Amino acid sequence: VLLAIGRDACTRNIGLQTIGVKINEKNGKVPVNDEEQTNVPHVYAIGDILEGKLELTPVAIQAGRLLAQRLYGGSSKKCDYINVPTTVFTPLEYGSCGYPEQKAIDEYGEQNLEVYHTLFWPLEWTVPGRDNNTCYAKVICNKQDNNRVIGLHVLGPNAGEVTQGFAAAIKCGLTKELLDETIGIHPTCAEVFTTMDITKSSGQDITQKGC
């Protein structure tokens, strides 16, 4: 990555101060509660200008749709800003859904988590002889909640496609037991999530010799 400049929240010159809406003076972001409501009760904000939320178009669309349903359709459903699948489309893709490991530790405590991980070797890398141990997969489980999966991470080919599928399972309450009971499609990259048995806490070697 040579340059990652990000985006500015252009909120300083649209009159928010006139009606008393607070913004973060440092970055222009707008703090809201879990219903996208600002400090002024009848003013809401969605999308990239939200402080502490993901700057992703599908997230803004979902939040806007749910806000409209709450305001005018009698719904009470809120946007889930945690279990959001996303991908970095670098030459070797990275995909994730749920908590990063450090945030999971901050939220639940390291003693309450079990982290399973492995390196893996995609089948299509066999002929060109690429490194066995470049691709990586990890699931973070909450031991206090039936080993529910609260974070899933993958670095490898087609990570976006893999992550999108598992995101639905995470929304449904995926657990490590359910992953273990799922029959993998061999030989796919996604199969690795059905065969993980090494925890980070064990310190065991996760290097691979083949598919």
From TrEMBL:
Pfam family, one: Pyr_redox_2
Keyword set includes Secreted: no
Organism: Melospiza melodia
MF annotations from Gene Ontology: flavin adenine dinucleotide binding; glutathione-disulfide reductase (NADPH) activity
Family: Belongs to the class-I pyridine nucleotide-disulfide oxidoreductase family.
SUPFAM superfamilies: FAD/NAD(P)-binding domain (SSF51905), FAD/NAD-linked reductases, dimerisation (C-terminal) domain (SSF55424)
Occurrences of domain FAD/NAD(P)-binding (ranges): 1-64
A Gene Ontology biological process term: cellular response to oxidative stress
Cofactors: FAD
Keyword Disulfide bond among record annotations: yes
Keywords attached to this entry: Disulfide bond, FAD, Flavoprotein, NADP, Oxidoreductase, Redox-active center
Protein name, entry field: TRXR3 reductase
